[in-house]
Design a protein that fits this description.
The chain has about 700 residues and is of the alpha+beta class.
Amino acid sequence: MKKYIIITLLIFASFFKVNGQESETKSTHVKIERLLFLIEQMYVEEVDENILRENLVTGMLNSLRPFSIYQNEEFFNLYKIKKNKSIQSAGFSLNFKKGKIVIDSIYNNSGAELAKLIKGDEIIEIDGNNLDEVYYYSDLLKLIVGDKNTEIKTKYVRSHESQDGEPVKDTIETSIIRKEINDLYVLPIGINHFNELKCISQYDKALEIFDYLYPDSISNATITENGIRYMLEQLDPHSTYISLKDLHDMNAPLKGSFTGVGIRFQVLKDTIMVVQAIPGGPSEKVGIMAGDKMIKIQDEIVAGIGISTTGVRDRLLGDKGTVVNVSIKRGISDELLDFSIERDKIPIYSVDASYMASPETGYIKLNNFSSTSISEIKKAVFELKSEGMKNLILDLQNNGGGYLRTAVELADELLPGSKNIVSTKGRKFPEKSYKTDRKGLLENGKLIVLVNESSASASEIVSGAIQDWDRGLIVGRRTFGKGLVQKPIDLPDYTQVRITTSKYYTPSGRCIQKAYEEGSVAYRREKYERYKSGESFNADSIKYNKEDIYYTKIKKREVYGGGGIIPDYFVALDTTGTSDYFDKLIRKGIFNQFALSWVNNNRKSLEKKYPSFNVYNKTFSSEKIMEKLIKYAEKEGLEYNEEQFLKAKKTIQVRLKANIAQDLYDYKRFYQIINELNTSLQKSLELMKDDKYFTKLDFKK
């Protein structure tokens, strides 16, 4: 009887598996057709649907691990794919491992076998093309696939041990012949070498193929998502796909809140250390304190298990109103304190710091443009004005943007009268202008906006409007150059796509979007290329189109489009006071770990000696504990280098003092100390004293 039950269960399981796959396939098909329709209807430029479909299929291919372009004759016959022996490849399968392209296997009688390549060899160059610039299999295919019996000049690295047992790497150059391999054919996906044979570009057929080629553990939905991401990336660098898993984390900073327990933490020595219980949050309400060590979460031991930051977040975040039980170790006592924390809405602040930088000049640092930014800024402005603020330095350095509406509202606070702030125009969308429409809090007084190569999008809207209306001085380095507007659209499975629909233009008419025709990788790398070209250090090296000239609205000064906002006053990137030793202290997390550990061990005496931040800022010197930092770093595996330490001594002292202040008081105090090293801010404080820099600007209505 049991035998028949088992057989019946297997039949039912098989039925549900097949029908589940069919349902998933239908769902992904609907999703793809909807997405293609949205792109055609909304995208900022004309699109070719055939190219979109080809890129979709190529993206599905690119995530295949390990990757092989070869399949046997039976496979081709099964999926009714035309065979072409005149097109061949090198004869190996590959894996991308930590940025390296490594041979996974060699096919018998292939060109790679005849060239004596073996499994584990790392391919670094093909026909003079450095593979450091290759990020997708499809890019590699363009280099290794070609006509039969042609040559591929290849450079590779082979690792082995010397006679003494030491690791050795040999760099070898050879030639591989694209040789015909019995019963194997090159799969026509992701490449354009097939002459009369078209590449497979139909989603339904490609999904059948990849459903076969991918491991059983990978669903059709995941395969499809791989394709969507690549397809959108070929449109422009800012059109993106967001899975259900990522949607919450991406939206939380813009919405200005998330749901959790309300702590800032750090994983220190395999232990979750509370850095701060967020004021007014659920953890503070039940008595969680800075320095507490979290040993258990929901009866699960989380100390000493190698837990990651993501692992902590997964356990502490959750729906509002749900309860998470934690066990805390406090101070030197071994007794665990149990707390029940009811998850609630936790604010995410976009104003990192606000304080009086000089007797008449306030400083506000904004990290993004969220839904709560304006209320945060208004609160900061009221406090600063009560302390005597007449002028403002607005720090938008490293601010990557956020909501367009928030940028418009901030510009409205800064610009007097009725003025255009920004305009958007797209292929399918008419021009729309955003104007100032109310009296702002910051319309008078000197204004300086700090920007750098990581100031983007909404930051550029604000700085562009301030510059075009001659309202203030833009100080720093050329901004990133993102002038594309994305519209978020929910897809049928509740995932989301953000499609570029428009470009935005500053009041003078310039589009600040930089070129992206060479692809997303080159687009993002351009910011770092400024360092190599000298632009980061010399204003004369700034790249801009001298023919793309516009004029500011009041003073008729020349400004330029097509590549970010060029500052009115250039401040070079400061690389003095740094060293490899200093960089490693940061990268290895030693500053944060040491400061948190030291404060935790000395918290009571520190609170007694420095009852307020002002007392701490005026009297505390980190020089007395530098030796402790050095010894701590050595225990963490960072060897002391006196020359490099002395080169960066002042920077290390300031950074350490800032980290300690963050742990002893709150994270906003970090900036008030670290800004001693902020060269753009320090230069701006000098500029504020000299009216000649502002005589060409209009501060009146």
